[in-house]
Amino acid sequence: MKPVIKRLLREQLLLEKDNREIIVNKMGLSQEAADLAHSISNKYSLWIAKESAIDGNYDRSVHVIRNKIDGFKKIIELFKIQNKPKTDINTLSYDGAYNLHSIWAYIKDWVYNPNTPSINLTNMTWEDALEMSIEWHNSLKANGKVSNILDDNSKIIHKFPNGYYWALTKSNYCAKSHESMGHCAEATRSDMYLLRLIKNDEEFVTADWHPTYKYIIQLKGKQNQKPIPKYYPYILWLISESGIIDELRTDEGYEPENNFQLSDLSENDIISLLVKNKKLIQNILSSYKDKFLIIKKIFELYPDSITERVIEQMMDVVEKEYKDIVANMVIKLKGEDLSFKDILWLLKYGNNKNDIAHTIIKVKGDKITKMDKIMIDKFTKLYKGSFSKIAKELGENTTNIKQLLRERLLTKDERDVKDIADFVNFAKDYLGITDDIKIELAYERTPDLKTYAYYRIGDLIKVYVKDRNSGDIFRSLCHELVHHLQHLEGRLTDPEKDGADGSDLENEANSKAGEILRKWGKLHSEIYQ
User: Fold this and answer.
1) Is the dihedral of CA 359, 365, 367, 373 positive or negative?
2) Nearest to 507 by CA among 84, 8, 19
3) In angstroms, rounded to a whole number, what is the distance separating the alpha carbons of residues 398 and 407?
4) Are 18 and 506 in contact (CB under 8 A)?
């Protein structure tokens, strides 16, 4: 490590100040890398920057940070926890810190279990805490049948003819589940419930489920092991026919390798699932090995579901030899209604880009737009460098036209407003905000809107949206939602004073907004295009 970096970390310059200037001028990283590290956590941005080096070289820092962004986020969240074994992050490598995150996932089940007495971990080493948590996990026994397995929070939602049934427990913890299954019986999040497969006072499968957004994160058998195939038919009913599952996020949470995964199902079961629950299209595309087979079924069963986002995923995941076939299936289906985003995904992932472009031009005919031509030229040069020519026709300079390929500016149409509503719901869910804070979109400046966003404490968030791209608008919304959460928690009482530049609450709002936007961006990458 360079001496200057060691000194900066020792002096703890990462605590309050904006470290981007240090990262660029003293560590030698690019401004883009500094901004990215800062967006993850300003407090730990110097450490993030240090860990982005490859063999002491920072030339590819941006790519390293992007590739490890989820890992950095998990590490930072760990170091925000107060009751944990003491560790100086500056003494750790990325791999060492990420290993502690993995260990913490095991320790926290023991520490946070309702039956565990209060424990002060700050006086323990990681080794001691891990050893005690292992002892606790090993002490858990699947006791099988337990009396009164359905408590007051539980009700049966479906019975099978052979005596098995699914029960919904409206709590994030169930002592009866803990006793029967031999696992912690606690949902990933405090606002999630438990779904339990039971027969004759014995539980066999447990899932945690979000009642508002209808997703599952953990889906496990006894003692946190993968459910045995005997129970797959009951799981298949739950995710395909119950009507309460819109998404599977079983690649997250504690020991995701032990979750039931769609890839565990047979080809016939996958097709059956697709027929019965089209909301899982994107999960199925990600999980099933024969992508082309699934894509053909989607075209056959749900042509109306083939949106820009589905097209992007199809073109991304399908086997290379089928990419052009899928591209032509999309062109045939959508015809002259192909959007320039559709064209982007077809050309970005297609093999024979010129052939695909020629087919698009032929199918769209005189309905082809200037933006379509720009997109085609971006990948094929069929219009012979038409950026400047088309820019002149539109009365724009070349830089502005290229920017249009990266940003979709907000308008007042229903689609834009729906996108914002979807994002606000996502951000509120992520932050755990349950009240109905009013969101107002402003297309003109008003006296109270001196900057891009305004928070009237407790009841209103107003965001200026005219001529701003969706990513910027979402970041402003996130920032103000974090301030609203701070108010609900009693930490913010005067936005101008408590949320002043450089304050802890303002830095937290900046950091959390970046975190949420990155999470959304992984699901909806079009905001970065």
Assistant:
1) positive
2) 19
3) 14
4) no
User: Are 217 and 252 spatial neighbours (Cβ–Cβ below 8 Å)?
Assistant: yes
CB 447 within 8 A of CB 230: no
Chain CA centroid to CA 416, Å: 20
Two structure tokens written together for 237:
């009913």
Provide the phi-psi class of 411: left if phi over 0, else alpha when psi is between -120 and 50, else beta: beta
- DSSP annotation of 222 reads G
Helices (H) and strands (E) in the chain, counts: 24, 9
Q: What are phi and psi of 5, to 5 degrees?
A: -70, -40
Model's pTM, two decimal places? Answer: 0.53
CA-CA distance, 330 to 2, in Å (whole number)? Answer: 53
How many residues are listed for the chain in this entry? Answer: 529
Q: Which residues pair with 454 in a beta bridge?
A: 462
Phi, psi of 278 (to 5 degrees): -70, -15
Dist CA 61 CA 377 (whole Å): 30
Angle in degrees, CA 88, 77, 86, rounded to 5: 30
pLDDT tens series, the chain, 529 aa: 555 555 544 444 334 468 888 888 888 888 888 888 888 888 899 999 988 877 667 777 887 888 788 788 888 888 888 899 988 888 888 888 888 887 887 788 788 877 788 889 988 899 888 888 877 777 666 677 888 899 889 999 999 999 999 999 999 889 899 889 988 888 888 889 999 999 999 999 999 999 988 999 999 999 888 999 999 999 999 999 999 999 998 887 667 888 999 989 888 888 888 888 888 887 888 777 788 888 988 898 888 888 887 888 888 888 889 999 999 999 999 998 898 888 888 988 899 988 898 899 889 888 888 778 877 877 776 554 444 444 444 444 444 444 443 333 334 444 456 677 778 888 888 888 877 788 887 766 666 665 667 777 777 888 877 656 677 788 888 888 888 888 887 888 776 776 666 678 888 888 888 888 878 877 765 554 4
Query: What are the residue boundaries of the structural domains of the chain, listed by start?
Result: 3-110, 154-274, 321-404, 414-528
User: What one-letter code names the amino acid at 24?
Assistant: V
Contacts of 350 (CB under 8 A, 6+ apart): 315, 323, 324, 327, 356
Nearest C-alpha neighbor of 470 from the set 421, 510, 509, 506 = 421
- In contact, 227 and 204? CB cutoff 8 Å: yes
Burial of residue 194, with CB atoms counted within 10 A of its CB: 0-12 exposed, 13-18 middle, 19 or more buried: buried
414-528: CATH architecture = 2-Layer Sandwich (3.30)
